[in-house]
């Protein structure tokens, strides 16, 4: 669905603006996220992308960010708050305050690495028990494979020298 949507959108943009070529590099990738543990980590990762790219100094400075909605309460009809976001506080002001507080500290390198690895390899991002449950349900690999070839077990028995 995303591939088809992307192709139609590219044709529309190219026709409308008299241009040619692709709009995005690579293909669409996605990753299933254990929202109870990683929703806010992923939201921080996304909101801080323009900061890491030195486009802005604060996530609220990026026009296309949802930070202003989530942290400041700016109205945006395109955004629907996640149920877990709503659990940050009873009132909207409490939710916004809690969201702003999450941005006092940036994500550490391991968190950024885990998100990127999960997305690039289209694996599951979450707790181990969540990954096991998804692997059982889907019968698909959900964790990265070990690096390198699998080791071949040595056969037990006699060796012949020729």
Overview features:
single chain, 162 residues, mainly alpha, 2 domains, 7 helices
What this model shows, in words?
By secondary structure, this protein is mainly α. It folds into 2 domains: 1-30, no CATH class; 31-138, no CATH class. It has 7 helices and no strands. The radius of gyration is 22 Å and the shape is globular.
What's the arrangement of secondary structure elements?
Elements: H1 2-16, H2 35-52, H3 67-72, H4 83-86, H5 92-102, H6 109-120, H7 128-138
**Termini separation (Å)?**
60 Å
The tally of structural domains comes to 2
Helix content: 40-55%
Instruction: Work out the helix count.
Output: 7
Number of strands: 0
Unreliable stretches:
none
β-strand percent reads under 5%
Q: How confident is the prediction overall: mean pLDDT?
A: 87
Largest sheet features: none
Overall structural class, as computed from helix and strand content, comes to mainly alpha
Could you provide a short overview of the structure?
The chain has seven helices and no strands.
């Amino acid at each position: 669905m995303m591939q088809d949507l992307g192709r139609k959108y590219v044709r529309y943009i190219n026709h409308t603006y008299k241009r040619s070529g692709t709009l995005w590099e690579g293909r669409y990738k996605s990753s299933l996220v254990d929202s109870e543990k990683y929703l806010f980590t992923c939201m921080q990762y996304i909101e801080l992308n323009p900061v890491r790219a030195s486009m802005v100094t604060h996530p609220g400075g990026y026009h296309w960010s949802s930070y202003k909605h989530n942290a400041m309460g700016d109205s945006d009809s395109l955004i629907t708050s996640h149920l877990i976001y709503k659990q940050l506080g009873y009132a909207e002001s409490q939710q916004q305050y809690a969201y702003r507080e999450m941005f006092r500290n940036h994500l550490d390198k391991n968190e950024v690495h885990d998100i990127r690895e999960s997305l690039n390899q289209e694996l599951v991002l979450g707790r181990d028990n969540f990954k096991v449950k998804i692997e059982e349900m889907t019968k698909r690999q959900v964790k990265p494979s070990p690096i390198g070839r699998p080791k071949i077990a040595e056969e037990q028995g006699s060796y012949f020298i020729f």
